[in-house]
Design goal:
Strand order of the largest sheet: 2-1-3-4-5-6
Helix content: 25-40%
Bound molecules: 5'-deoxyadenosine
Structural class: alpha/beta
Number of helices: 13
CATH superfamily of the largest domain: tm_1862 like domain
Radius of gyration: 22 Å
Largest sheet: 6 strands, parallel
Number of strands: 19
CATH topology of the largest domain: pyruvate-formate lyase- activating enzyme
Length: 431
């Protein structure tokens, strides 16, 4: 029996793609291992969105190559593989395979060839690749990622993703619903729909609103999540949580980023979402130090964070990505200034989130118990609004829904007390 080890970096789409690769290789008899030293095939699924992400992977490759025994195959897959292609074979001599996000179908064949000493690169985009015939190998029986769209047709000037994931393609609604129905039959009750810009989902006949309604109507689906926006309110399973990347609070910067909204339009969308879904939690992504960002622009980002009062924000220093349009913008923000700005931004993000979370102490929530907490002998659970709560309880609560009351907060996560009533009855009352 052959074993495969996959280490995954980057976004949820990569986590989902790794499940797909386990699926592709599982059909060929491969068994998954968590131990790189025991693996016959070692794959690193990579991110290219910032230089830092790539440097980390290169460092890690240096460590992983120690586990490569004669006859073993080592591959770099995902966005960095797509971006660098054959250059990676030159850069890391132990690497046998370089495969981009549309090439996973070729894994078994390329692995076999690598065993015969043929190193290979597979980085062509396939207009219609959706891996429809490959059942992903998932390891969480309760909660599943389901890819509904691959690629991206946006052209944000800072972003490498259109170049690493190719053109936008949506899966057929019936195929997605079929997959979700099979998952629900197997006991899955929480589904996260994945795509780079899920709100632009369109399969030729149906848009994202149709998709949400159809997936939300599948029997057994109690929580429905997605990576961004719209058509949420009338589908009860859709969770009260949206990740809505803003990138900057300055309209001037947004325009130069080629985002398709300005500050006011973003605020209008937030207001509309909140009106439709009371209690909505919002998170975002923010870039500081985009070329030409002035102190005034940055102040607008700080004031937007205060104004929207995000529940959480992922903050990044702008990182130049080769071949993106922004490369041509000259006016670079010095590294020290980026560091200084991100520091100030994180402080505001934390303060605003803490204020919101303190206000939630004492309130009660439905949580899905996910597993043991990282530390201590508590359980880790998640609310519909994506807040993490730690609680005491038996291990057989894992994978079940409970009612809890928040008893305290660190500012970002919560401690919680289980409410010993019939969860089902309370959930209905609460909704
Ligand atoms: N530099 C810094 N951050 C970036 N992101 C995307 N491209 C870059 C870049 N060149 C951030 C954006 C995006 C998140 C996934 O990564 O905030 O939403």
């Amino acid at each position: 029996m052959r074993t495969v080890y996959i280490e995954t970096y980057g976004c949820q789409m990569n986590v989902s793609d790794s499940e797909l690769m386990f699926g592709v290789l599982g059909r060929e008899g491969y068994v998954r291992t968590e131990d790189p030293a025991a693996a016959d095939v070692l794959l690193v699924n990579t991110c290219a969105v910032r230089d830092h992400a790539e440097q980390r992977v290169l460092g890690r490759m240096g460590e992983l190559k120690r586990y490569k025994r004669p006859g073993d195959v080592m591959g770099v897959v995902g966005c960095m593989a797509q971006r660098l292609g054959p250059k990676l074979l030159e850069r890391v001599p132990q690497v046998d395979l370089v495969i981009g996000p549309d090439g996973y179908r070729a894994l078994p064949e390329l692995i076999a060839r690598a065993r015969d000493g043929q190193r290979a690169t597979e980085v062509t985009f396939k207009q219609w690749e959706h891996y429809e015939d490959v059942p992903p190998a998932r390891d969480n029986p309760t909660s599943a990622f389901v890819t509904v769209q691959r690629g991206c047709d946006y052209r944000c000037t800072f972003c490498i993703v259109p170049m690493t994931r190719g053109p936008e393609r949506s899966r057929k609604l019936a195929d997605v619903v079929g997959e979700v129905a099979r998952l629900a039959d197997g006991g899955t009750s929480e589904v996260t729909l994945l795509g780079q810009t899920v709100n632009s989902y369109h399969d030729g006949e149906h848009d994202f609103a149709d998709l949400l309604r159809a997936v939300g109507a599948v029997d057994g689906i109690r929580r429905l999540r997605f990576t961004s926006l719209t058509a949420m309110a009338e589908t009860p399973a859709v969770c009260e949580y949206v990740h809505l990347p803003v990138q900057s609070g300055s309209s001037r910067t947004l325009k130069r980023m080629l985002r398709r909204y300005d500050r006011q339009q973003y605020l209008d969308v937030v207001a509309a979402l909140r009106a439709a879904m009371p209690g909505l939690a919002l998170s975002t992504d923010i870039i500081v130090g985009f070329p030409g960002e002035s102190e005034d622009d940055f102040q607008e980002t700080l004031s937007l964070v205060e104004h929207v009062a995000f529940d959480d924000a992922y903050t990044f220093k702008y990182s130049v990505r080769e071949a993106t349009p922004a490369v041509k913008i000259k006016d670079h923000v010095p590294e020290e200034l980026k560091t200084e700005r991100i520091g100030r931004l994180i402080e505001v993000v934390r303060r605003v989130a803490k204020r919101k979370n303190m206000g939630l102490v004492g309130t009660s929530h439905e949580v899905l118990v996910e597993g043991p907490a990282k530390r201590g002998d508590l359980l880790q659970a998640r609310t519909r609004t994506n807040k993490i709560a730690l609680l005491e309880g038996p291990a057989d609560w894992i994978g079940t829904y409970r009612r809890v009351r928040f008893t305290g907060t660190t500012g970002s996560t919560f401690t919680a007390w289980p409410l010993e009533k019939e969860p089902e009855e309370l959930v209905t009352a609460w909704r």
